[in-house]
């Protein structure tokens, strides 16, 4: 069996003692210094497919501060794959924290307005793009396609080697990661774990169907997963000063850095669920650290976070 690619770390917090649970963190944020976390897992088999095929390059979609765009640009540079990012927003974003790096690594940015970006799943728009960029391999926003599933599923295989656990928590954006974990839990062993997805965007219930759709080609059943949609804290990229304070205190307490866009919302959900008595005594919980710390760069640039609270980022020298 292959060796786990990321470590599993025990963390401690007074609330864990109070509610008699144990918590471990699967440190996928440490998988790679740039292509961190779930984006690495989701891209693994996509990149293999591109390398094995006869494509001109690869094209994907994302917001102007997207972790996926950032990871994808670097992965393509490593694999020498020409790459295009269809970016929601105006060309003036080209030198922001995320896109400055992506362009530095060779990504060509194709900017579209919000209205056009909304058509990113429409056949008509995709046809237009494939006429513009013939023979490019298309990967949807967030990297969440069926090829992402087996890469993420490997996290559960690793966890089964590393520990015994009851419940696995992950933040959820487009749902690919949650789908991959569910898929991995059905392959790896007969006992199903409870898998909880914490949606980071508002009105995320529609994702349940997207997740089922990503899982349907495999036709496997898993009855012990849930998407929790009440922990988005106002919507994607939104949080209160108090949320940030609680995440920073948790980081200080545990020595692991969680950011407030994805993994930090999972942390806040964990703390809230504990306080609600959601978990059983002796429950063994694993948090998936999905990485994404580059996203802090954009938040700092937009004045939504203070640089001195997050002293871990390097900007492109242009
Ligand atoms: C993209 C991302 C997610 C969301 O993953 P999905 O597969 O889109 O649900 C979670 N955490 C981080 C850090 C991410 O960058």
Key terms:
1-aminocyclopropane-1-carboxylate deaminase; Rossmann fold; ACCD_DCysDesulf; TrpB-like_PALP; alpha/beta; 6-stranded mixed β-sheet; 17% strand; globular; 318 residues; binds pyridoxal-5'-phosphate; TrpB-like_PALP_sf
Topology summary:
Elements: E1 8-11, H1 14-18, E2 22-27, H2 38-52, E3 57-63, H3 67-79, E4 83-88, H4 97-104, E5 108-112, H5 114-117, H6 123-132, E6 136-139, H7 148-162, E7 167-172, H8 176-188, E8 194-199, H9 207-215, E9 225-228, H10 241-254, H11 263-275, E10 284-289, H12 295-301
Parallel strand pairs: 2-10, 3-4, 3-6, 4-5, 7-8, 7-10, 8-9
Antiparallel strand pairs: 1-2
Helix pairs in contact: 2-3, 2-7, 3-4, 7-8, 8-9, 10-11
This protein binds pyridoxal-5'-phosphate (PLP).
Pyridoxal-5'-phosphate (PLP) binds at residues 37-39, 67-68, 142, 144, 171-178, 262-263, 290-292.
């Amino acid at each position: 069996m292959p060796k786990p690619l990321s470590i599993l770390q025990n963390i401690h917090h007074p609330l864990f003692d109070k509610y008699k649970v144990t918590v471990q963190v699967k440190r996928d944020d440490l998988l790679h210094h740039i292509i961190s976390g779930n984006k690495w897992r989701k891209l693994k088999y996509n990149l293999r497919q591109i390398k094995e095929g006869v494509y001109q390059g690869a094209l994907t979609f994302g917001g102007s501060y997207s972790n996926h765009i950032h990871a994808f640009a670097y992965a393509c540079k490593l694999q020498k794959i020409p790459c295009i990012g269809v970016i929601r927003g105006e060309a003036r974003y080209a030198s922001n924290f995320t896109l400055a790096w992506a362009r530095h690594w060779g990504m060509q940015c194709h900017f579209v307005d919000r209205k056009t970006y909304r058509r990113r799943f429409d056949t008509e728009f995709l046809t237009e793009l494939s006429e513009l960029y013939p023979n490019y391999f298309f990967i949807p926003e967030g990297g969440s396609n069926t090829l992402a599933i087996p890469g993420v599923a490997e996290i559960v295989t690793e966890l089964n080697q590393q520990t015994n656990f009851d419940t696995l928590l992950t933040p959820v954006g487009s749902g690919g990661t949650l789908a991959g974990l569910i898929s991995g839990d059905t392959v790896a062993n007969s006992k199903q774990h409870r898998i909880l997805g914490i949606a980071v965007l508002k009105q995320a219930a529609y994702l349940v169907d997207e997740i089922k759709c990503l899982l349907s080609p495999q036709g496997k059943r898993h009855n012990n997963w849930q998407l929790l949609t009440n922990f988005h804290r106002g919507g994607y990229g939104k949080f209160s000063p108090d949320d940030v304070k609680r995440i920073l205190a948790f980081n200080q307490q545990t020595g692991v850095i969680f950011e407030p866009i994805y993994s930090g919302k999972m942390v806040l959900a964990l703390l809230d669920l504990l306080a609600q008595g959601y978990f059983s005594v002796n429950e063994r919980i694993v948090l998936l650290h999905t990485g994404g710390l580059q996203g802090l760069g954009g938040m700092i640039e937009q004045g939504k976070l203070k640089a001195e609270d997050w002293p871990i980022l390097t900007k492109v020298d242009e």
